[in-house]
Amino acid sequence: MSPRIPPAQREQARYLRRTMTDAEKLLWEYLRDKQLGVRFRRQHPIGPYIVDFATFSGRIVIEIDGPTHRDFDKDAIRDAELVARGWKVLRFRNADVFGDTRAVVALIRRLVEK
Fold this sequence. Notes:
single chain; alpha+beta
């Protein structure tokens, strides 16, 4: 049985789903409804974190970093903790999602198919 999500974290995840960035909205159009063969969740709590997208099939996390994103040290710690929990972490910049969406989706598809 999985641990219960604290109410504050659950509410924060709901808020983040309502206020997704444009890059997250664009990528979600390709991930939703099992278009890649697996179910993705958006703004999903994993441990103390809320990840942008996650699928339990293959235990993959996808993070989208905006133009003002600068906290690389925290990201490295967060990614290491997620990897230690058995997750694979993919990180893309907004520019990657907007500039070459097909390449981003193709990379995700290849990882999902492994």
